[in-house]
Amino acid sequence: MIELNNAVQHLRQFRMRIVIAGIFVFSCFALLAGRLAFLQFWHYRRYAAQADENRISIVPVAPSRGMIIDRNGVVLAENRPAYTLEITASKIDGALDDMIGRLSSVVAIGAADKRRFKKLLEYSKSFHSLPIRLHLTEAEVARFVVQRFRFPGVEVRTRWSRRYPLQATAAHAIGYVGRISAQDQARIAAASARNEHGPGPYDPRLNANNYKGSHTIGKTGIEQSYQTELHGQTGFEAVEVTAGGRPVRTLWRSPATPGNRLGLTLDSGLQQAAERAFAGRRGALVAIEPATGEILAFVSAPGFDPNLFVDGIDQIHWDELNTSPDRPLLNRALRGTYPPGSTYKPFMALAALTLGKRTPQWGFYDSGRYTLAGHVFRDDKPGGHGWVNMARSIVVSCGTYYYILAHEMGVNAIAEFMKPWGFGQLTGVDLEGEARGVLPSTEWKKRAYRRPAQQKWYEGETISLGVGQGYNAFTMLQLAHAVATLANHGVAMTPHLVRDIRDAHTDIKRAASSANRRINVKQQDMEVIKRAMADVMTRGTAAASFRGAPYQAAGKTGTAQVYSLRGGKYHAYQVARERRDHALFIAFAPLDQPVIALALIVENGGWAWQSAAPIARQTLDYYLVDRFKTPLQTVESIARESAPGSARGE
């Protein structure tokens, strides 16, 4: 008989299956528990950090840029609150471009605004609030607020905006800020890497993360050279965000530290007086306090309004500045190099005394010409100046005297003497981009030219150096530095623009240092030169401009050829403007206790006694006389006015 249903066997099979299934389920749970334990205990920190990164976003808080004031407390650069229209891309509904189009019907948004916003968006996260329109008027703010409900993710905020209240005054010294470019970002990254791995102490201000949230950076002048001091330190906010990137709440906040306040050596009143004196002419002027090296005025004319660059200059203004034949963006005081002309003669005379080539009494009868190897070098006065000694050679600016002297000294002796005075050398001024210029020597010419014929030095080339022509090419900063050193009895002080730095966090003021060195020149020799330069102002080439001055000054006029006359006679009215001679002037005052020394040039100005000397007179008049009559608007006076209840070769 066949058994069709064996209950015992089926029960045994069923139980076996239950055991196998249980073992399988238990193994699965064991694996899950093991994996859970593995993640929770061995990799907890790793995955917890990743979760927090997805949940928490670190949002930068840009610091307020440091203020810049002059030596009297007059504000030169500050921050003013401005209304900005900002978009948080993660909060908007629909397409970003569509929303911007609708927004343009309420507040004017130009093509330049859109381009700037998209560039900012490329370097930021979607939950960052980015400006699409800057400097809204109160009417524009009111129009937007009424229709704000139509634009989720868009709001009006108040941001600090850089402002230069004196506009073009000292623009080349102060510089300006502008939007951070790709080149700026590369420099920031390079500086951060050097700071991280370099041998010096670590400075958190140089870290690349310190620029997150910042949209502007110093581009030129003090704004660029002292970027680290002025920028401050970025703060941060920890913001909880949803999976879609929408901010939920602020978890914690680290406030930003404002930038440090810079006190400059400039006197804004003197700066404005000197700029006015140029009256639209091209040129440069540098005035220095001899005893300290502090730069009192730093003029490059014409100038420009740095406010144009803060939010990005428009194409019309850029073309106007960039294509102007007067080149207003060129920093002539720092980068313009010029032959010094007859302003070189006092230093040539001092070299002759120091090297024993001349005595003050040595003289000769000047016929107005000097011949070397058949070539005639002519003085500007036909027939010459008659009997000329050292003092008279400076007073009447006798070219023949210095033709002979240069030939006797030789190019290398001249270069060796002039080098310590700073000619053709970097002065060490605290501005980036200083030009070195050219102090000629036989070695310089070998380096400057490739062809052997060009490398050879000819005696005739030395003759021109004696009157500040030829290969000589110096900046007005170098010339002013040399004059200040002469006025300071041969003690050279490093010229500088920053007087002190006030820490925004501790309010402690740090004074800027100025290195000094003494040039090995006899005091009695320098006195001979100074007295001769004083006579220039009373009975020499500058007498007309300084007649009746209530102080005693010392100075020297200079005219530098722009192109060769090839033996012809110079007549300014027959020459195109751009080919006319440059006019130069150097001076210091008062004679016995100098407090100011200056050098200036008027490009294509012609005779210096006509164009350059009057500028020097106006500049010295202001600093020595007029400034004591002019009230200053300082930081403290502005605060008082703003207080509640207050009223408003020659």
Task: Walk me through this protein's architecture.
The protein is of the alpha+beta class and 650 residues long. Among the domains are: 82-160; 268-629, DD-peptidase/beta-lactamase superfamily (Beta-lactamase), CATH 3.40.710. It has 23 helices and 23 strands. A hairpin with a 6-residue loop joins β22 and β23. α13 packs across α15 and α13 packs antiparallel against α21 (523-539). The longest helix has 36 residues, at 7-42.
How do you describe this structure in short?
It is an enzyme of class 3 (hydrolase). The protein is α+β, with helices and mostly antiparallel strands and about 650 residues long. It contains 23 helices and 23 strands.
Count of DSSP strands: 23
> By CATH's scheme, which homologous superfamily of the domain at 268-629 applies?
DD-peptidase/beta-lactamase superfamily
* CATH architecture level-2 label of the domain at 268-629: 3-Layer(aba) Sandwich
- Characterize the largest beta sheet: strand count, sense, and whether it forms a barrel: 7 strands, mixed
Q: What is the CA-based Rg, rounded?
A: 36 Å
Integer average pLDDT: 85
Q: Estimate the global geometry from the Cα principal axes.
A: elongated
